[in-house]
Design the sequence.
């Protein structure tokens, strides 16, 4: 009797390891992989050209990995999610598939697409099997004593850890090699405009980055805030497209701790991965966030800053060296250090009084790791409108942050070479004369005044 055929629909889970949809489909019979690139949808979601290029190459790497298991991957361009669903139905018929397997995505448009796909395919007589591969503990696994979703990170993290202790920590293995001869596979190419020297695409590259990072995990707590050194994993682009799973990351971390659970659960890097889980759960519980709503309905929205401030911020021409260096890092590499993301977000929102949503969209248009849940969570945290956001009076000073986290100006010098000759003291905020001489802009705001105004408006 011939084996049943199932389609695996890859989306932001571009890997063969620890991929529940792929693993369980392969247990049932023959697998055919499908990838659908919804071109217009990406535009409407502000996805960055560098992220699209990175995805393009990650899909190609995925095909190589799948082909080693004799699994074909057919990729197609479609316009939007509605067309994705139509195409999927057509392919399911064409391949005479029994079922379609996929891993859930949580932002609203994706969740609606998946509901529609499930409904349509089931109506046509196909089986639909859905899994959670982008999150470590399944959605809605934890809730407060009152049965409500968590809104504050620390108790969420405590509950997350308690739940995780009851779960297996091992990622899923690779599916077995199948008995299938691969013919022609449908393929396409789109832009490849990204820094592949920094982020070589694919699952193997992601695993290598993880291996490179783990020996440094012991210093993460001390080094993660210093932008001049490589103190963080830089795995975010891979996690965003699913070239590696969060579960794979933390299972390797536990191994690095030699299985010592006490040390593992106290690990600061684990905590950051739990922030990622927290923001995913937040968008699941609050679908309106995907419609650009603030999390806190009583948040003060006082964003009446001049657009010119936004324009200068977005070009890295604010006259505040740390902010400008950070924005140049984003424009040049498609990535920005977390400490700097917080600084530039608070600068734009609280000091320039520009709506955080403008910054959020700008980040998405430029980040290689653009991820709706984490980006929205980060922006709402900084603007004090979000779940467990910073208190309204927390406004990072771009000058003292620079002195504290880039004391010798190493990061600034690298990104703003015109300031290279300044002393370690002056580089954080050059004088009027120094700026004129070096061709560096004058500050676009008076920090003390702007801070005072923000506190008055937000209190
Ligand atoms: C305004 C703002 C916007 C952000 N936008 C994004 C975004 O679009 N995509 C994105 O992946 N992260 C975003 N972050 C979170 C964080 O800045 C990045 O995940 C981190 O800088 C990525 O670098 P890394 O991989 O070296 O992280 P590491 O420090 O090595 O952390 C490991 C992983 O944990 C997760 N993580 C770390 N910090 C956070 C956090 N604060 N929130 C959620 N997840 C976290 C990421 O997946 C990261 O790759 C944003 C933060 C802020 C303040």
Sequence:
């Amino acid at each position: 009797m011939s084996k049943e055929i199932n389609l695996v629909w890859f989306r932001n889970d571009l890997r063969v390891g620890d991929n529940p949809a792929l693993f369980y489909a392969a247990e049932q019979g023959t697998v055919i992989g499908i990838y659908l690139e919804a071109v217009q949808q990406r535009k409407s979601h502000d996805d960055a050209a560098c992220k699209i290029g990175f995805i393009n190459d990650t899909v190609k790497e995925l095909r190589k990995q799948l082909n080693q298991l004799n699994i074909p991957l057919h990729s197609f361009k479609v316009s939007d999610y509605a067309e994705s669903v139509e195409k999927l139905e057509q392919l399911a018929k064409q391949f005479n598939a029994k079922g379609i397997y996929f891993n859930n995505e949580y932002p609203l448009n994706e969740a609606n697409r998946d509901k529609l796909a499930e409904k349509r395919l089931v109506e046509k007589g196909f089986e639909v099997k859905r899994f959670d591969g982008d999150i470590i503990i399944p959605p809605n696994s934890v809730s407060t004593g009152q049965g409500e979703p968590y809104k504050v990170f620390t108790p969420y993290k405590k509950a997350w850890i308690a739940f995780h202790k009851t779960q297996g920590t091992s990622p899923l293995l690779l599916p077995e090699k199948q008995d299938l001869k691969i013919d022609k596979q449908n393929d396409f190419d789109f832009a490849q405009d990204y820094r592949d020297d920094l982020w070589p695409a694919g699952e193997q590259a992601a695993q290598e980055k993880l291996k490179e990072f783990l020996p440094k995990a012991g210093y993460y707590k001390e080094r993660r805030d210093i932008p001049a050194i490589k103190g963080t994993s830089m795995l975010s682009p891979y996690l965003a497209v699913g070239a590696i799973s969060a579960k794979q990351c933390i299972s390797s971390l536990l191994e690095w701790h030699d299985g010592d659970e006490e040390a593992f659960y106290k690990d600061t890097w684990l905590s950051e991965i739990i922030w990622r889980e927290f923001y995913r759960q937040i968008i699941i519980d609050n679908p309106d966030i995907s419609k650009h709503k603030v999390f806190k309905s009583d948040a003060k929205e006082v964003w009446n800053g001049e657009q010119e401030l936004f324009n200068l911020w977005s070009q890295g021409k604010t006259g505040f060296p740390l902010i400008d260096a950070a924005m140049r890092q984003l424009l040049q590499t498609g990535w920005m250090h977390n400490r700097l993301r917080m600084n530039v977000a608070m600068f734009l929102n609280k000091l320039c009084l520009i709506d955080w949503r403008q910054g959020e969209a700008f980040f998405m248009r430029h980040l290689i790791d653009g991820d709706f849940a984490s980006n929205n969570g980060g922006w709402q945290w900084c603007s004090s409108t979000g779940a467990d956001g910073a208190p309204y009076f927390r406004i990072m000073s771009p000058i003292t942050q620079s002195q504290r986290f880039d004391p010798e100006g190493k990061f600034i010098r690298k990104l703003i070479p015109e300031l290279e000759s300044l002393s370690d003291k002056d580089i954080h905020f050059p004088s009027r004369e120094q700026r004129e001489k070096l061709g560096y802009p004058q500050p676009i705001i008076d920090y003390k005044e702007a801070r005072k105004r923000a506190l008055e408006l937000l209190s």
Notes: The chain has a mean pLDDT of 96. The longest helix spans residues 49-68.
